[in-house]
Amino acid sequence: MADAASRILELAEHALSTAFPLRVRAWDGTEAGPSGAPVLVLTRRKALRRLLWRPGELGLARAWVAGDLDIEGDLFQALDLLSGLLWERPETGPAPGPVRGTAEAVRRAATVLRDPGTYRLARSALALSGPGLPPAAPPEEVRRRTGIAHTKRRDKAAISHHYDVGNDFYELVLGPTMVYSCAVWGPEAAEAGPAGLDDAQRAKLDLVCRKLDLRPGQRLLDVGCGWGSMVLHAAEHYGVRATGITLSVEQAAYARKRIADAGLTAQIEIRVQDYRDVRDGPYDAISSIGMAEHVGSERYLEYARTLYGLVRPGGRLLNHQIGRRPLRDEEGYHVDEFIDRYVFPDGELSPVGTTVARLEEAGFEVRDVEALREHYARTLRAWVANLEAGWPAAVAATSEGRARVWRLYMAASAVSFQRNRIGVNQVLAVRTPEDGDSGMPATRTAWLS
Question: Can the keyword Zinc-finger be found in this entry's annotation (predicted)?
Answer without folding.
Answer: no
